[in-house]
User: Fold this.
Amino acid sequence: MSAPSLAKAQSTPRPHESEGGASLGAAIAGPRLLGCVALGLGLVVLAGWAFSAYSLTSFLPGTLPTKANAAVLLALTGAAIVVHATGRGKRFVGLLAAVVGLVVIVTAIEYVARVDLGVDNLLFKDVAAQGAPYPGRMAIVSVVGFGASAGALLLLGRTWRGIHPSEVLALVAGSVGALGVLGYAYGAAQLTSIGSDTRIAFPTSLGFIALASAIVASDAEHGLTRLLRDPHLSGRLARRLVVVVILVLPVAGMLAINFGQPVSRNAASAIATLVVLELVTFVIVGGWIIEGTRRVEGASAGLAEALAISERRFREALSDVSVAAVMLDREGTVIFANRYLLDLMGRPPAEIIGQDWFETVSQRPDPGARRRGPAGRLVERVPPR
Assistant:
C-alpha cells in the first residue's frame, strides 16, 4: 500500500490564539517604552508650565499649548501603562484610570452644562485664545481621547463576543491623536478641532498616539499585536497595511502640499480631508481582506489538524492487522510500516522507516522496481513459507 503522508503534505497549522508568538521580553518592553513616552510628554509639558517655558507646552511655534490638566492626565495614563507592563499593581492601574476618568467626566460636564467647576485652572492660570476659548480647559477631542484611554485601561484583557474592547477604545484615542498630527502637518485646523471651537494641542496628539500604541501592545498574545506578529499571509498583509496607513498616504499628502503647486489654506484642507478619507478606506477594505484571509487560514488549519488525526488513526488501525502495510512519500521514502511487514521482512524499524523502499527491498539494482511498485518487489524479496 503506497500513499503520501497527509500530515507532511500540509502546511504548518496556525497557532491558536492562546499560544501567542510574542516573547515575554517584547510583551513587556513595547508597552513600557510607549508608556514612558506618554509619561515623558506629560512631564515635559508640566515643566514648561512650571518654569514658564511655553515652547515646551506646544513644541511648535505659534501653536496652542497643551493644558496643564491634559498634561497631568497624559502622565497618569502613561504611568498606568508602565505599571501594567510590569504585571503588578493592577489595583493601582485601576485607580489611576479612575482618576483620569473622573477628570474627563468633570470636564465633559463643564462643556455640556457650560459651567466652570474650578478644575481648569487648578494648577496654573491660563488665558483664553483662538482655538482655546476656555482658559485652562482641554479640547473636546482631548476629552474623548482621555476617556477612551481610561476605559481601555479598565478593560484590558477582557473580551466581548470575540472583540477586545480595550483595543477598540485605544483605536479611538489613537485616531484623535493621528488626526491632530495630520492637522498640524497639513495646516488643516478642522482636523485638530473636529467640528468644535476647541483645538487639540500637538503634544497631546503625540501623546494619544503613544498611549494607543502602548495599550494595543499590552496584549501581545491576542488581537492586533498578535496579528502584526503573525508569520502567515494575514500577518504580512496587516504589516503592509500599517506601512501604507502610517507612512505612504500621509507622506504623499505632505509632498503634494509642500512640493506641488502653491496651494491655498482651503486647498491644503481639502488634501488633508482626502488623505483622511483614503486612510479610512484603506483601513476598512484592508481589514475586511485580512479578516477573510484569517478565516481561510483558520479553516485550512482545521483541515490539516483533521487530516493529521485521520492519518494517525489510520496508522494505528494498520499497525495491528495481519496484512503487510507500508506508506511512502512522493520520493519513495518509507514513512510507515506496520508490525506485520517488519516481522515478515525480519528487519527492525530503523532499517525500514526513513529509507528508500525500492533500495531496501531489492537485492540488486532493478530499473523496473519503481514501475512495478512496492508490492511487486516485496513478493520477490520475501521467501516462500
DSSP finds 15 helices and two strands in the chain. Residues 326-381 form one domain.
